[in-house]
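Now for one protein, fold included:
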Amino acid sequence: MIAATKYVGNDEIDDCIDAGIKVIGGNRVQDAEQKKALVKKDVEWHMIGHLQTNKVNKSLKIFSMIQSIDSLHVSELYIKITY
């Protein structure tokens, strides 16, 4: 189960983690970056929204998984950067 955090603050994320959630999903790179910096608990962060080409590099530093690559161009860029 992934807890999506689009309209959720850090207190709610902490509550989800305390309730047993192990994976946090974000659909905005900058928003997830800010939330991850404030949430100090051990969870995985997944990208669950549209990933823009200009945000691929930054997303690789934030998320352990990108679940939503929706274009060949973004997938080629992702592969080029990671391999």
